[in-house]
Amino acid sequence: MIIGKVVGSVVSTRKCDNLVGNKFMVIEPLPSMRVSSRIVAIDKIGAGIGEFVLVAQGSAARVGCDMEHAPVDAAIVGILDEGQNLK
């Protein structure tokens, strides 16, 4: 999993049918996560811009958001209330 900060959202009016109705957020991974670029993650839990989140990737993302047959590679699976070195 990756810890990151929600820095924006993405709007897509045309997408796969099994993605309709879902929100997508742009995540800036913490530098300590050693992920070099921002990622887009599906958000089924209602994270907001500025919040720190846990992001699952790969097949764990599909399982974590209960979308096993959707083209999802990253999913927000938790909102962090506190933690060390989040800023």
Can you give a write-up of this model?
- The chain has 87 residues and is mostly beta strands.
- The chain has a single domain, classed as OB fold (Dihydrolipoamide Acetyltransferase, E2P).
- The protein contains 1 helix and 5 strands, in the order ββββαβ.
- The chain has one helix at residues 59-64, and strands spanning 2-10, 23-29, 39-43, 52-57, 74-79.
- The chain has a 5-stranded mixed barrel.
- The longest helix has 6 residues, at 59-64.
- It starts with a strand and ends in an 8-residue tail after the last strand.
Main attributes?
single chain; 87 residues; mainly beta; OB fold (Dihydrolipoamide Acetyltransferase, E2P); 5-stranded mixed β-barrel; 1 helix; 5 strands; globular
Order of SSEs, N→C? EEEEHE
As a percent range, the share of helical residues equals under 10%
Mean pLDDT: 90
- Which of globular, elongated, flat, extended, rod-shaped describes the shape? globular
Structural class: mainly beta
| Strand order of the biggest β-sheet | 1-2-3-5-4
Radius of gyration: 12 Å
Q: What is the architecture at the second tier of CATH?
A: Beta Barrel
Characterize this entry briefly:
With 87 residues, the protein is mainly beta. It contains one helix and five strands. It has one helix at 59-64, and strands spanning 2-10, 23-29, 39-43, 52-57, 74-79.
Mind sketching the topology for me?
Blueprint: E1 2-10, E2 23-29, E3 39-43, E4 52-57, H1 59-64, E5 74-79
Parallel strand pairs: 3-5
Antiparallel strand pairs: 1-2, 1-4, 2-3, 4-5
